[in-house]
Specification:
Number of strands of chain A: 27
Oligomer: heterodimer
Number of strands of chain B: 1
CATH architecture of the largest domain in chain A: Alpha/alpha barrel
Strand order of the largest sheet of chain A: 6-7-8-9-15-13-12-11
CATH class of the largest domain in chain A: Mainly Alpha
Shape of chain A: globular
Distance between the termini of chain A: 44 Å
Distance between the termini of chain B: 5 Å
CATH topology of the largest domain in chain A: Glycosyltransferase
Shape of chain B: globular
Number of domains of chain A: 2
Largest sheet of chain A: 8 strands, antiparallel
Strand content of chain A: 15-25%
């Protein structure tokens, strides 16, 4: 069998805010870690080869893909094939809302509907258990279900159509008057709850109504389709039991095909959470914004005032990184890793994102709880005491620490926003607040004198370096200098020119400078940050034009990965990427009110 | 009969039994979730069911402790080993009689005769509760032997 290589951007995301799966255009679920995002995949051939399992459903006769879409304002993914005399539609979803009711936490529902005549279909169910990709240790029948067990996990499969079998393709017919539903439930170290297909379909309909109501509350005048899909993706990637936002639901999708830049993103980064807070808050979703901040403060409770780079879904420090031997990787991109070694790095920028998120809530009229304020103030104290030390920087380069300008800017942001919050709370003149403002001003002078290269007319990646860093595109947003200042304008221009990857794409830093073998793609969040930077510096027309180019670069379902191959336009890296979608929302909102266009949906 | 011992150590032994079962469950040895299984007789909410189920299991354990105490009194002797023997018999009865009867009375458990119903159901236990994992009978026996040993050790025979 030849290696399977579906373009990353062609996968559709399904999820229940606890786990997420990726569905290929041929109807195969090639990735599904359940019951949690960070569990071993039950279906993992996306990076684990056929030995890692999959669950395919599709036509069993000559057919052509005729459409893929999410049902409007829901997370139910439909895939439609044209067949002779009719069509076959597959609807995939996971039940999100199970709290307080007799339902398992994990319910995958796949429904096939035929139109125009009877359609021959097939399914192939090959579940695997654990990172050793074990086939089921036991397969048995319980009442109406087939139960597969392995390690400490069990899945139950029920169907109102074909008799369920595993490890082989099973053919069956779908009649126009009788859709076929297959339901998979999962339980780890607990008893399975068996869900009949009729009930599962009713639950999906209930969920869809819930998602539509949720989407109706989104405030977005422009680019609504993109904003809604991005916010839904962010919500799907938020682990509801704790509120932790995972950066992406996958591990080791490569930043370069065939390369070794393959990382596990099934962790929560405080930076992503903070950007998510801004995105949700600006979109009329303060509940989600507060939820992210609450998670951040809860997760960091044991480590304060130090803010770890990343957390597990439970708020613990990230696990040790290891490589999965024998996993072939996506398109032979090895190694496949689980765990993330960046957890041990010191990154100064994280504090800025978090304190800024607290400021955004304060500025929007939400009063911080006393506990929240104490935590935020402790972060500011920590920044005031440590800003002179070098750090690993936002990009988690596996190199020696340096004085990264972006990190210093974010440290400045932490001190500035903490002082602003203190002022709102009537604490402007306290010794603590004055200490922050003094440190902020000292840091600003340091950045201006050591972080700006007058030859290039730009703030650089690090003190003493001539390299540029696309993360510095946040400069016009911070208020560090007036957005119209020559230094800001020339920095934006320099980054746009020197880090250009062609078209609307940007590299995050000059290729080949991160100490890792091989190159990587253009970094998509940076392009959205550029939109925001252009809008903030008054170049609205350029910002709109750039956004228009970027909005068509999303996958067929409107999803974005972390990076993009500048030559082929293929999505790269873990997918879909929360940071990219949060940056998209912020970019689109930066255009709102700054434009007079009216043609967007 | 040792009423004071029954009141105190019945509770201690049942708590210990429950702890062993939960530890085995969390350790991945069995999927049998006693609090969930018992609690869902009274409520559909799995989270609330676990709380209710824990209380129900404590009450059931206390009732069984009564039989243990009566047994010790009838034999005129007690001890950890006798209690452990009682526990072995108790586990055998639980696995072969009590648990297999559950699907017949549990409102949210599938019976082996069930077809495509309209409601969600807990998976049925099967023979010796083996459906919940092959180690389930061993875990159940170990937990009940510990339960009996605690009662045998601390309950008087008078």
């Amino acid at each position: 069998m030849t290696a399977r290589q579906i373009p990353i951007g062609d996968y559709g995301l399904i999820g229940d805010t606890r786990s997420a799966g990726l569905v290929a255009p041929d109807g195969s679920i090639d990735w599904w870690c359940a019951p949690r995002f960070d569990d071993a995949p039950i279906f993992g051939r996306l990076v684990g080869g056929d030995a890692a399992g999959w669950f395919a459903i599709g036509p069993n006769e000559a057919a052509s893909l005729s459409g893929r879409a999410y049902r409007p304002d829901t997370v139910t993914l439909t895939t439609t094939w044209s067949v002779a005399g009719g069509e076959l539609e597959l609807a995939d979803s996971l039940v999100a809302e199970v709290e307080g009711r007799f339902l398992p936490a994990t319910v995958l529902v796949r429904q096939l509907t035929a139109r125009g005549g009877t359609v021959r279909a097939h399914f192939h169910l090959a579940p695997r258990f654990g990172y050793d990709r074990q086939p089921p240790r036991r397969v048995g029948r319980r009442a109406s279900a087939v139960v597969c067990e392995g390690h400490d996990l069990a899945i139950a499969v029920t169907s109102d159509g074909p008799i369920i079998e595993t490890e082989r393709s099973v053919a069956f017919e779908v009649h126009p008057t009788k859709p076929v539903t297959i339901v998979v439930t999962a339980a780890r170290r607990s008893m399975l709850i068996l869900v009949p297909p009729a009930l599962a379909n009713a639950e999906i309909a209930r969920d869809e109504a819930g998602w539509r109501a949720w989407a109706a509350g989104i405030e977005a005048a422009d680019y609504r389709t993109e904003v809604v899909r991005s916010l839904m993706t962010l919500r799907l990637l938020t682990y509801s039991p704790s509120g932790a936002p995972v950066a992406a639901p996958t591990t080791s999708l490569p930043e370069r095909i065939g390369g070794g830049r393959n990382w596990d993103y099934r962790y929560a980064w405080p930076r992503d959470a903070s950007i998510g807070i801004a995105a949700f808050l600006a979109s009329g979703k303060p509940r989600e914004a507060r939820g992210f901040l609450a998670w951040l403060l809860h997760a960091s409770r044991l480590s304060r005032p130090h803010l770890p780079v990343l957390f597990t879904l439970d708020g613990r420090p990230g696990g040790a990184e290891r490589e999965l031997g024998g996993w072939p990787g996506y398109a032979s991109s090895r190694p496949v890793r689980v765990g993330n070694g960046a957890a041990r790095q010191h990154q100064l920028d994280g504090y800025g994102w978090v304190v800024d998120a607290a400021w955004l809530l304060t500025d929007a009229g939400h009063r911080l709880y006393g506990e929240t304020w104490r935590a935020v103030a402790a972060f500011a104290d920590h920044v005031a005491a440590t800003w002179r030390t070098p750090d690993a920087g936002i990009w988690e380069k596996r190199a020696e620490p340096a004085h990264h300008v972006h990190s210093k800017l974010m440290a400045w942001l932490a001190l500035d926003r903490a002082a602003r919050i203190a002022a709102v709370r009537g604490d402007r003149r306290s010794r603590r607040t004055q200490g922050w403002t003094a440190a902020r001003d000292a840091l600003a002078g340091d950045i201006r004198s050591r972080g700006f290269d007058p030859v290039q007319g730009a703030y650089t990646a690090a003190y003493g370096s001539t390299e540029l860093d696309a993360a510095v595109l946040v400069l016009p947003v911070l208020g560090f200098e007036p957005a119209s200042s020559p230094r800001v304008l020339s920095t934006v221009d320099a980054i746009r020119q020197r880090l250009s990857a062609g078209g609307p794409l940007l590299y995050r830093y000059p290729p080949g400078t991160d100490g890792l073998a091989g190159g990587e793609g253009a970094f998509l969040p940076c392009s959205f940050w550029l939109v925001q930077a252009l809008a903030r510096t008054g170049r609205t027309d350029e910002a709109v034009a750039l956004f228009e180019e970027l909005r068509v670069l999303g996958g067929p379902l409107g999803l974005y990965g972390e990076e993009m191959d500048p030559v082929t336009g293929a999505h790269l890296g873990n997918y879909p990427q929360a940071l990219t979608h949060a940056a998209l929302v912020q970019a689109s909102l930066s255009l709102t009110g700054a434009t007079t266009h009216g043609g967007h949906d | 009969m040792d009423w004071g011992g029954w009141a105190v150590f019945g509770l201690v032994a049942t708590t210990g039994l429950t702890a062993v079962m939960i530890a085995a469950q969390l350790g991945g040895r069995t999927r049998l979730d006693l609090p969930l299984m018992l609690g869902t007789i009274t409520t559909e909410d799995p989270d609330r069911a676990r709380v209710a189920g824990f209380g129900i299991h404590l009450a059931i354990g206390q009732v069984f402790a009564l039989f243990y105490a009566a047994g010790f009194a009838a034999l005129g002797r007690s001890g950890w080993w006798l209690g452990a023997l009682f526990g072995l018999a108790h586990a055998a009865i639980a696995l072969t009689v009590l648990v297999p009867l559950l699907p017949g009375v549990h409102p949210h458990m599938a019976s082996e005769r069930a077809g495509l119903g309209s409601t969600a159901v807990l998976e049925p236990p099967g023979l010796f509760a083996l459906n919940y994992g092959t180690a389930t009978p061993l875990v159940a026996v170990g937990a009940h032997v510990a339960y009996g040993a605690v009662l045998g050790l601390f309950l008087g025979s008078h």
